User: Which sequence fits this backbone?
C-alpha cells in the first residue's frame, strides 16, 4: 500500500498495511452509529483501520465516498458544470476518479494545473481560479492550453491580457459570507461597480469577458446566502449589457459544507436555492453555470487516525485535562484556528464517563492548541497510546501540513 504525505511539497512514504500479529494493539475506537450520509465513519475506512498498520497520524480517504458525493451534487444540480477545487485534496487517486466521472477542475497554481495535466485531464476542463497569479504562471498555463482565468483587479487583468491573449476571463465580486464557519474576508473579489468597469476593460484589452464569480464563504451553513450573491451577480450582467458586454457564465463558487460538530443542510437544499435564485434573477436566460466544490466532495470522505501522546492537568482552579495528540495545527488541523472548524472525535472509551478537556498538538509552539474555548468532553479513561479518529478530515488537512516543523514529518495519507 502506498501513502502520500502532502505539505508544501508532496512526499511519498511506504508502510506495511498488514496487521502485526505480535504487537499488542493500542486501544482503537469502534465505529460510531452515525450513518455515512450524515457524516458517520465509512464502513470501508473502519474495516481498513482494523487491518492496516499505519503511521500516526494518518489520513485515510474513501475514494468511493468521494465519487458518491460528486454524483450527489451532479444529480442535485445537473445544469451546472462541476469544477472540483483541487486545493481541498489533490491526491492522484481523487483527481483521477473525479476526472473519470466528468469533473472539471478549479486550480490555484501552476503546480495544481500540472497535477491535473499529468493525469490526462484536458486543459479545456481546467480553470485558473486564483485571482493572485504571477504573470509567468499565467503564461505557462496558457501555453499548456488553459484558457479560463479569474481576476478581481485592474493589474491582474493587464497581466492576463499580456500573458494569455484572447482568453476567457471572469471577475470575482465581493459578497456577504455570513453563516460561513470559515469566512473568506475581503482578500478575494472586488466591489460590483469596479467589476463592471473591469469587464468592459477586458474586452478593450482583447480578452473575452465571460462571466462573474463569487464565493459565499467556506463551510457555509446557510444555503439562502446564494440568493443575495446571485442577485448581485445579475446586476453586473445587466449593467455591463448596457455597455455592450454580453456575459454568458455565472460561477457560484463553493461553500457546500462537510459535517463537523453540527448537522448541516442536505446538498439538495443548496442546489434548490441556487436553481431558484438563478430563475428569479435571470428569468428566461440560458447561462453556463459553474460550481467549485472542494470541502463537500472530500471532507466527509476522510478520517485521520491519531494517537494520544499525553493526558495531564495544570493544577489551580481549572480542573480540565489537557489532551495532547500527535497531530496539531501545524500538521493538518490549521482550520482549528480560532476554533472555527470543530471536528468530531471518536475514542476507544466512548460511552463511558466523560469530562471537559483542552485539546492540543504535540509541537513546542504555544499556538498549537486546537480547542480551549469550545466545550469538548472526552472520556476520563482516555490515556497516552490510545488511538482516536478525527472525522470529516478529508479536506484541507494534508495540503496544510508543514514539511518538518519540530522535525515532525508531514501528515501521511492513503486513499482506499
Assistant:
Amino acid at each position: 500500500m502506498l501513502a502520500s504525505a502532502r505539505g508544501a511539497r508532496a512526499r511519498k512514504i511506504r508502510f506495511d498495511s498488514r496487521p502485526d500479529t505480535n504487537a499488542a494493539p493500542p486501544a482503537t475506537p469502534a465505529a460510531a452509529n452515525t450513518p455515512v450520509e450524515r457524516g458517520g465513519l465509512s464502513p470501508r475506512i473502519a474495516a481498513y483501520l482494523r487491518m492496516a498498520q499505519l503511521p500516526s497520524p494518518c489520513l485515510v480517504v474513501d475514494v468511493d465516498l468521494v465519487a458518491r458525493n460528486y454524483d450527489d451534487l451532479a444529480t442535485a444540480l445537473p445544469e451546472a458544470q462541476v469544477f472540483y477545487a483541487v486545493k481541498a485534496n489533490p491526491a492522484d487517486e481523487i483527481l483521477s476518479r473525479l476526472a473519470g466521472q466528468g469533473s472539471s477542475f478549479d486550480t490555484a497554481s501552476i503546480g495544481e494545473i500540472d497535477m491535473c495535466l499529468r493525469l490526462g485531464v484536458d486543459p479545456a476542463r481546467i480553470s485558473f481560479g486564483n485571482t493572485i497569479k504571477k504573470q509567468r504562471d499565467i503564461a505557462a498555463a496558457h501555453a499548456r492550453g488553459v484558457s479560463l482565468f479569474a481576476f478581481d483587479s485592474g493589474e491582474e487583468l493587464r497581466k492576463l491580457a499580456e500573458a494569455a491573449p484572447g482568453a476567457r476571463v471572469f471577475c470575482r465580486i465581493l459578497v456577504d459570507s455570513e453563516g460561513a464557519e470559515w469566512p473568506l474576508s475581503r482578500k478575494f473579489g472586488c466591489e460590483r461597480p469596479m467589476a463592471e468597469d473591469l469587464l468592459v476593460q477586458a474586452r478593450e484589452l482583447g480578452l473575452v469577458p465571460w462571466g462573474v464569480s463569487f464565493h459565499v464563504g467556506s463551510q457555509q451553513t446557510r444555503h439562502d446566502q446564494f440568493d443575495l450573491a446571485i442577485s448581485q451577480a445579475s446586476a453586473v450582467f445587466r449593467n455591463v449589457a448596457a455597455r455592450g458586454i454580453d456575459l454568458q457564465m455565472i460561477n457560484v463558487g463553493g461553500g457546500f459544507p462537510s459535517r463537523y460538530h453540527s448537522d448541516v443542510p442536505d446538498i439538495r437544499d443548496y442546489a434548490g436555492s441556487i436553481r431558484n435564485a438563478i430563475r428569479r434573477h435571470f428569468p428566461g436566460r440560458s447561462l453556463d453555470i459553474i460550481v467549485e466544490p472542494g470541502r463537500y466532495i472530500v471532507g466527509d470522505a476522510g478520517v485521520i487516525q491519531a494517537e494520544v501522546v499525553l493526558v495531564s492537568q495544570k493544577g489551580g482552579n481549572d480542573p480540565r485535562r489537557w489532551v495532547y495528540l500527535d497531530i496539531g495545527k501545524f500538521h493538518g488541523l490549521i482550520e482549528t484556528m480560532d476554533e472555527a472548524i470543530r471536528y468530531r472525535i471518536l475514542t476507544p472509551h466512548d460511552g463511558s464517563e466523560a469530562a471537559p478537556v483542552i485539546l492540543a498538538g504535540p509541537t513546542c509552539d504555544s499556538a498549537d492548541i486546537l480547542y480551549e474555548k469550545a466545550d469538548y468532553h472526552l472520556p476520563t479513561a482516555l490515556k497516552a497510546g490510545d488511538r482516536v479518529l478525527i472525522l470529516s478530515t478529508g479536506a484541507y488537512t494534508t495540503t496544510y501540513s508543514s514539511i518538518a516543523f519540530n522535525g515532525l514529518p508531514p501528515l501521511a495519507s492513503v486513499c482506499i
In short: The longest strand covers residues 302-312. The two ends are 9 Å apart (CA to CA). The mean pLDDT is 91.
